[in-house]
Known about the structure:
By secondary structure, the chain is mainly β.
Amino acid sequence: MKKPVLIFFVALSLLIFSESYSQSRGQHLNKTQVDDIDNFTNVGNIGLTVTNFGIFGHGYNNPDRPSCLYKLHSSNPREQVEHLSYGGLWIGGKGGFFGGTHVSSAIIDGVFDYGDQGFEFTTSAADSDTIITRSSIITSRWFDPSAISHQDFICNFTDKNTRVPGTEIEIPNHIPLGLDVHMESYAWNYAYADAFVILNYTIRNVSPNPIEDIYAALWVDASIGNMNYTSIYEPGGGWSWYDNLNGYDAEHKLAYQYDADGDDGFSESYLGIRFLGASVPTANYNVYYNQWQWSTSSSGDFPDYVMPVDDEGRYKTMSTTHPYRSPPAQGGIPDKPASWMLFLSAGPLSTLQPGDSLNFAFAVVCGRWANSDQNDTPARRKNLVLNSEWAQIAFNGEDVDGDGKLDLNEDLNGNGFLDPGEDTDGDGVLDISEDRNGDGRINRFILPSPPPSPNLFVLPGNNRITLFWDNLPETVEDPITREIDFEGYRIYSAPKTYGLQESETLLAQFDLIDDIGYNTGFQAVRYDTTIDDHQYRYRFVNDLLLNGWPNKYFYSITAFDKGNPANNLPSLESSILENRTYVVPGALPNEHARRKVSVYPNPYRAQAIWDGTGDRDRMLWFTNLPEKARVRIFNLAGDLVDSFEHDAAAYNGSGIRLLESSQSNADVVFSGGEHAWDLISQYDQAIATGLYLFTVENLKTGELFQGKFLIIK
């Protein structure tokens, strides 16, 4: 077992957890405010836990939440790879509250007991310290016009507390610089931008003194592994912490880690940390790479790759790079698999006067191996580098070349040149202080984007699914060209054939009649109707489907644009994740008058195709139920075995463990005329083999239906 270290979530960011994450040697503190550890990105394909005290990841402490999982939405078990236990922000500088050189760290390695050092960012007592969620997706429940990405997390924390807020517990060896931190994380669902999360930090000097020569860094305890290969949540499970290798791509300012052997194809994925830039020109600072083995402050094999143990050592590590940090083939980075930390820093970024602020950003990036080569090569890193480049493009925004200033060919308002009076210092470039659109800064975090997906309503029926959607995408401007460039819709479903993996199938495409695409027009799907006070413009019917569980399908309708040939940009399509809805076709509740209430399968045999492995993972289905009904189940002696009520409008499979665990981050829509029973009696016992009777009472009319079914185990 690796790292018998305990990190507790204590009040507002004092944590100490064992990286084995299987034992606890202490107790949670009483606290006046709870840290926010429950948010993770899920809009794209990277699931990264983000907290409000400078840490990301959750140490694999919760099997229901990813720490840093990519690909989050893949149905292929080999692609569901975890990448890090914890990562955190470090900020170093000289001066501040007490003078001298100090580093404030969100987390460090080598922590063994409650009350140790390293967890120096805390939230305060303000309500704003909890994480705020917002989204730029118009159809999202979190939609906010001020959102930057499809999923923003926003929070504040500080290094100025020497005690855990709300307690008398001192944070050991912590000398604050005097910094408040505002953090925003950004994630997108675009297919080309769904493999990274941007961590955007703004720090402000709240001390009465200057803070000089500021450096910023991310410390990451990376560990690449796949819970489907060896799960740490199962007895005897867990992958080796010591089979990882690191690398550094200086050209792209990209530190990365990978599993040395790929775990038989289950861990063929990279984790990357990339420094994207700061609110100062790139010429003003350098980017540095370091690594060391977990909690190793001295090493006979690699004496230059050791953990810094105090603020002086940490600051030195942040501000230097070993002279031979190069690929292993050139005699540089160690090529011995181990539990290597990733560490990427940048500086000196600025000197902050009291009240001044500084902005900088990192990206957490993942990428599948581009080939099956067991050696780390540029060809194998192709996906990782491409994903990190999209993160850089997003950060750069209008600063296309990423030099921290707007040159003549970088255009804020689309006219391709400096307007009169914009180049105030006459140097031929638009500096950060020279502003074309009146906001006083370079506009960042801009990506080419398709129209949003439409609002989708899915209506299950008897052997069919009907889709209704609105025309919202047809009215949305492109954020770059400011033109309405909508072209059409695509309808997806999965699975097309039972037993296939959950890869989507294109069912149909409809596009404008113009000089682009198939020119089908929308007449075949035009259907104006109002459902729940919302106006829908189109309808598509998918029939000849199989009723009932396990015939669970998902549907998604995307929108795509015309593309921009002038900028060599192809047509872009919204994500299938944006309105993906799971649905089970079946009898509608209004059909009960014409069709007899019944049970399937009948007879029921244990270990049916949809059953799980335990007694509580079985299902028997009642079909053709009234809209509101009471179901009672009896044995042949007339004793009541179990009963439940059915409400077609509210039924979503709740109360059935197998259904609840299979919904894949989305509620399943049922037809309303069917209801599952888990074969567990009212006394919480699995029922035995035998013949059973049932009654179904229509709670609206009082009509009573009777039937029977056979259980064979």
